[in-house]
Amino acid sequence: MQGKVGVFVSIGIVMAEQVKKEQAVSGVPMVTATIDGREVTVPKGTTVLEAAREMGIHIPTFCWHPKLKSVGACRMCYVEIERMPKLQVSCATEVMEGMVIQTASEQVLQGRKAVIEFILLNHPLDCPTCDKGGECDLQNHTFAHAVDDSRYSFKKARYTDGTDGTTFDDKRLGPEIVLNRNRCILCYKCVRANKEAFGEYDLGVYERGNIAEINSAPGHEVDNPFSGNLVEICPVGALTNSDWRYKIRVWLTQTTSSICNMTSSGSNILFYKEKNHNKIYRVTSRMNDSIDDGWLPDVSRYGYQIATTEERLKTPLIKKDGKQVEATWDEAMTVIHNRFTEIAEKKGKVCLGGLASPYLDNDSLHSFNKLFRTVFKSNNIDFRSDYRMLPEGADSPYEMLVDQPFTIADIDDSDLIISFGSDLIREHPNEYLRMRKAYNFKRAKVVSINPYAVKSADIAELEVIHSIGRAETVLNGICLAAMEMGLVNNQDLTGKIAPATTAEAASDAGVTEDDLKEVARAISSAKKISFICGEMVSRSIARDTIASALWNLYLLFGFKDKGQMAILPRYANSRGAGSLGLLPSPSDGLRNTLSGLWGCFPESDPNNTDAMLALMRKEEISGFFIIGANPLMLYPDRQFVTDGLERLDFLVACDLFETDTTELADVVLPLSSWAEYDGDYVNLEGKVQHARQAIKPLYQSKPAYEIITMVAEKFGAPLFESIEACRKEVDELLSMTHSTKFPSQFLEVKPCYEDAEEEYPTPLLICDDPHHCGHRTEKSQSLSNFVSEAYIEMSPEKAEKLAVKDGESVRVESPVGKIVVPVRISDCIDNNVVLIPRNFASTQVTSLLMRKRRLDRVKITKVDE
Amino acid sequence: MMLSEESVKAIKERAGRYPHRKSAILPALTIACRQLGYVDETVYREISKIIRIPMVEVAEAATFYTMFPKAPRGKYLIQVCHNISCALLGADSLIGYLEQKLGITKGETTPDDLFTLISVECLGSCATAPMMQINEDYYENLTRQKVDDILQDLRSKA
Description:
With about 850 residues, chain A is of the alpha/beta class. Chain A is built from 29 helices and 33 strands. Chain A has a seven-stranded mixed β-sheet. A six-stranded mixed β-sheet of chain A has the order 29-31-30-33-28-32. Chain A has a five-stranded mixed β-sheet with strand order 2-1-5-3-4, with helices on both faces.
C-alpha cells in the first residue's frame, strides 16, 4: 500500500443525482459540498461519511455501521474540512452548504495513523491466534496506514478472567458468544446494535476510561435471538462464536451466496466452506437492504448446522420384519414402485397421497406436484403440515389474505405498524427488526394486538391484550368504534357484524373501549400502514372468521390506498408452494395453466392434510409419500396423525435425519439440505431468490428433485427432459400475474366462542422457540446450545398461583394427553396464557392438542419431587 | 425489597419529573445510596423495575460513576484527597496517620463497620488543603490534631 490510502470505488453505489431527484420531490432541502475536489449534492442531514460513500470514496471506520446511529467513538473516520481548525469525524458531521472536504490529505492520514497507534497501545497483537485475522478491520487499517512500530515501551495492560486462576483471556458471555477484552477497541458497536436494532438489553458497557469493559448484564447471559450479529459486526476479534472459533482460517474458505432456509423472508446469507473437505464452517449475512438490512436472526445463522450434523440419515432404509435396515437407492426405488402399484391395483381408485415440506425449493415442489397429479392422478397433495382443519378453496377470505402483496422494505417508512396475532420475534424476526428500525428512525407508531404480552410490544405505543380466542371481536370492535366516532363514512357494515356496539365488543374481547377507539383513530389518521398478521391467525380453526373481520377492517378504512395488510407465510418457500399450486384445489387460473403444461389434470377429490389423515383412518388412502415434513411432531393432534399413519399400507418418508415420522415409515430416504444443491425459493413478498449449492450432497443423500424424478422414472413416466425443462414450467407458473383478489363487499362476521371447561382452565399456545424453527433446528448444535428442551412459559403471577419456581417441573394435562415440562417464568406472557415450544422431539407437545378445537386448554399441576 | 418504601416513593416522584424515564437513573441511584450506603445488582434490578427501564442501563450508569459505592461500607466514608495541592501539604502522611489510627489500610472498613477509608482525586477544595470528605461534609486545613478530634466526635455520635 506504500503508506497511502487508496480510493476504493464500490459497485452499486446510489448515484447522488438520483437521490437529488427523489429528495427534491419529497421536499427535503438539498446541500452541495465538495469532497476531494468533486461536487456532491445530498439531502440536508446526510453525514460527510455517507456523502463520501455515495461518491465511492472509502473512509475507514471502526464504530460506524450503516444501520445504526453514529456515535463518533473511534475517531478513525477523520477528514479535513476547510475553515475548521481541527480534524472532524466524518460519521458525525453533517454536510453543510459550501463545505470543502479532504478525505485523504496529509493531515488526515497523520491523524488516522495516530488513532491507530493509540488503539494499538494495549492491543495484544495476537493476530496469529485470533480468529478475526484475515478479515479484521483493525488489521487492515493498520496495514493500510503503515503503522509498523509502537512508541509505547511499557508493559501492555492485560485483562485476565482470573476466575479459574488461568491467564487465558476469554470470557464466555453466552451460549454462542465469547469475549476477549484485550482485543476490544471499545467501539460499542455490539452494545449499540443490541439495544438499538434488536431491542435486547443483555449486553452493556461498564466502568469508564481505561477500565471500561463490554460485558453481559449482571446475572444474565447474552442469549438473545440476534446475538450472532454481534460477533459478525465486531471490527476486531473481541467477540467470537464457538461455531467458528479455532476451526479454520478465513482465507482457506470459499464463499457461496445463498438464502436462509429458516425464515420466510429469505435472509441473504453467505456460506463459508472448504471445498476439499466438502464442509461448511459458518454463515454470515449478505446485506440486502430490501430484505434483511444485513442482520441475521440466530436461527438463520446457525441453522446451517442441520446440514453438517452427524445425525444425518446416511443411506436409504427399508423396513424388513418391523426393523428399518440399510438399503441401496435401487432397492428402495423398486420397493416404492412395487408397493405403490400393488396398493393402487388392490384399491382400484385413487388411494395415494403426498405431503411436501415448504422448506423445499421450487423445482422439488413442482416436480412433486407433477408426480402426484400426472403419474398418480391424485389431488391428495399439500404442503401445510401444522395447520389444523384447513379451509377448502382458493377464494376463502383466509386464502385471499395470504395472497396479498407485502413488501418488507415498506415497513421502513410506514407511520403505523400493527402486529396482529403474531409473536413477531418468534415468527418473523426480520420484519420485527424492520419495525424497530421504523420506530427508531422515523418515530413510527407501533400497535400490538395479541392474546398475550409479546416481547416485541416493548416499543408499542399501544398494546391491546385481548381475551384469547376473541380476535375477530377485537377487529369488529375497531370497526364499530370507527363508525361510532364518525371516522369513516361507510355504514354498510352495520348489521353484518356482532356484537353491535363498541362497548359490547370491548367487554366480549376483554379490552377497554378506549383501546379500540385509540386503534381506530390511529388507523384512520395514518398515512401508510403495515398490518402484519401471523401464525395465531393461520393456526386458528377460526382463521376464516378472523380473516373476514380483517377484510372488513381493510375495506372500511380503505387500506388499498394507504398500506399493506397480509397474513405472512411462515416457512422459507410457503409462498412458492402456494404459487406453484401444491394445494389440493389450486385456483382456477393455476389449474388451467397446470393442465395446459401437463396436458392433463386429475379429477379426483381434492384432500388437504387434515382430510388425507382422516381418509387414512378410514383406510381410503393407503399409500403416502412425505418429503421433508414431520406431521407427527407438528400437526396439532398427534393421536390423529399416529392413527392415520399407522393404518397406512405403505409410507415413504424423506428427511435429513430420523424423525418421529420416519420411524413409522416403510421406506426412509435421505434428503439433502438446501446447502447441497441449487434451488430457487419464493420469499413472503413473492420475490424469487436463488440459493447456490455450497457443498456436494453429503453421504448418500439426494436433493428432493432427484428423488422425485427417480420415482417417476421407476413408474415409467419421466417428469421432465431435464431440470431446465422443469425450471421453464416453474417460471411460467410464477410469472402468471396473480390477480390479487379482494372481497367486493363487507363480509359477515359472527364470532364463535368456545366455552372454557372448568377442569382445564388454562389456554395453551404452541409456538416456535425464538431460536428454533419447525422440527429440524434442534439438530443444530449451536441452536441447541441456546435451548435444547421444551419448557412451559408462564407469567410470574401464574407461577405463584401454582407455587412453582423457574426450572421446576409441572404436569400439563389436556383431555387427550399429558406431558411433563420445566417451567420458564417470563415477564412477557400475561393473560393466563401459557406457551410451549414445539421444536423438540423429546416433548410430544402436540399430543395435548385436538384438531377440532379453537383453543387448546390444559390443566397444570406441580410435580412433587 | 432492599429499598424502603420511602426510597421507592422518592424514586417514583423523581421519575415523574423527566420527559424520559431513563433520566431518573442517577437520582434513583443517589436515593438508593443514601438509604443503603451502596448499590449492587439487586438494587439495579429493583430500580429498573421501579422506573421501568432495562436493568443494564442502570448497571452501566452506576458503574460509570465512582460516587456510587458498589459494596457495603462503614457508616462514615472517609475520602481523603490525594491530588497535587493536598499531596504537597502532606496528604500522604495524613492517610498514613488515618490508617494507623483506624487500624486499617486504604480501601478497608473498620471491624465495627464505622469507618471506611479511601483516597480520591481532587475534591475542588485546594485552597484549604489538605482536606477530606466524610459522607457529605468537607473537613479542611487538616492537621493530626484535627483528625483526632473529628474521629472522636464521630465515634461519640455513632
